[in-house]
Design goal:
The chain is about 30% helix and about 25% strand. It contains 8 helices and 12 strands. The chain has a 5-stranded parallel sheet, sandwiched between helices. A 5-stranded mixed sheet has the order 7-8-6-9-10. A two-stranded antiparallel sheet has the order 11-12. The longest helix has 20 residues, at about 245-264.
């Protein structure tokens, strides 16, 4: 299977380091400058390009986005319209309901799959199933070390360097959380897109100086089922905002897609 990757930051590099666990014959990476991949793991099977047209010309079977919300806005529709399936890591971009509608329409037009990774969390299958039968509400708390919140809107609310205990700096609806903290709330979007919608997911974000990992705690409430999840995951190398399990989630989606290709 030929794989396309958008972005070559910490998450993409960690993903590429682990591609030997999935059946990928060649990987083409879209980076702004064309990038120098010399020394990268498996570099003889890696190729870099600097435009989406060049990436699509490489005929990837699947493209994984690891470059942030702006990359989804810029590239998702064009990718899906051409018939190439897409795994967008930056699900928070879909807090924009109009963008989500356009991307879904592009997938239908191109007969391509828009594959939402679970990322750092579990229970997406349960949430999807419950949402088929009625209203689902989710209450989510995301806790990370202070350094994971640096460079975000959290710094406008609290002094991250002076914390002595867990401190909540945001409490509100999922759509607002995804818009204000675009690099840290893709988990929130994954929960919302599983069925409840952004309006039925309540979010609290916390900085904890004693946290050694990223923690995701959420309850799921439906008329026929109540569930609670608590997940703690180490951060991806070089990116304290992203849980390492997110990379494993992307690898799983690549493996499943490759199996589907072989079955066809």
């Amino acid at each position: 299977m030929r794989l396309g990757v958008i972005g070559y930051g910490a998450v993409a590099q960690t993903l590429i380091e682990r591609l030997d666990t999935v059946p990928v014959s060649e990987t083409v990476i879209l980076v702004r400058s064309g990038g120098n991949l010399a020394g990268a793991p498996g570099s003889r099977r890696l190729k870099s390009v600097s435009t989406l047209d060049a990436l699509l010309a490489a005929n990837p079977d699947l493209i994984v986005e690891c470059a942030g919300h702006a990359a989804v806005v810029e590239h998702a529709e064009a990718i899906l319209r051409t018939g190439v399936s897409l795994v967008p890591l930056s699900l928070g971009a879909f807090a924009d309901a109009q963008l989500l509608a356009r991307v879904q329409a592009a997938a239908a037009l191109g007969n391509a799959r828009l594959i939402r990774p679970a990322g750092a969390i579990a229970g997406i299958d349960l949430i999807e199933a419950l949402s088929m039968e009625g209203e689902v509400r989710i209450t989510y708390t995301g806790t990370k070390p202070p350094q994971a919140w640096r460079g975000t809107a959290a710094e406008q609310t609290i002094d991250l360097s002076a914390l002595t205990g867990p401190t909540a700096f945001f409490s509100g609806p999922a759509r607002e959380a995804a818009s204000r903290f675009p690099k840290s709330t893709n988990v929130v979007a994954a929960l919302a897109l599983a069925g409840p919608g952004f309006e039925r997911v309540s979010v609290t974000l916390v900085a904890d100086p004693d946290a050694s990992a990223n923690r995701h705690a959420y309850t799921v409430n439906a008329s026929t089922c109540q569930a609670a999840f608590s997940i703690e995951s180490g951060a991806a190398t070089g990116n304290p905002r992203t849980s390492l399990t997110t990379v494993y989630s992307l690898l799983r989606e690549i493996r499943v897609f490759a199996e589907l290709i072989r079955a066809d």
